[in-house]
Amino acid sequence: MSIDKLTVLLIWLFPIIFAVHDFEEIIVVEKWIATNKQDLKNKLPKRAAHFFENNFAMKTHQFSIVVYVEFIIISCATLLVYLNGFIGLYKWLYLGLFAVLFLHSFTHIGQAILLNRYTPGVLTSVLLLIPYGIWFYYVLLQKNIIDYSAILISVPVGIIIFALFFPALMKAASKY
């Protein structure tokens, strides 16, 4: 399957923009959490505060391990779609991962609004992830590479992928 240059660009921007976004988080998250821990407990609902504390109370090097593995998975999915096109399992793996990252960008905005301050990842969400995500979906829809049902289906696919791997990845990284 031949893919035009714009689609190739959009496909390969995914791991690049993911990396830039997660670099923002890696650089600031440990210090930010230490500085804002008490305020998080006070402003977040109990379950959310407990989840946040258990899953994000890690050192920068531990968080970097998680990002590294996620980057490898996203890069492999990108390579598979680039080589094979948007077909079968490759399509769903790529679109599922993409949907999770795109939706994840909105959580950063919600966190910043809730806490009324900068939160790790909000800058790249607003400046890169959301504009890129909109552009990606717009172009692929216009070129009939995907349709709206593919976008809708990719959301639960991505959530399932995330739910299967992220907790184990966080647990493994916390041991280092």
From TrEMBL:
InterPro entries, per the entry: HXXEE
Keyword Transmembrane helix (UniProt): yes
Source organism superkingdom: Bacteria
UniProtKB keywords: Membrane, Transmembrane, Transmembrane helix
UniProt-listed Pfam families: HXXEE
Transmembrane segments: 65-85, 92-115, 121-141, 148-170
Protein name: HXXEE domain-containing protein
Higher taxonomy: Bacteria, Bacillati, Bacillota, Bacilli, Bacillales
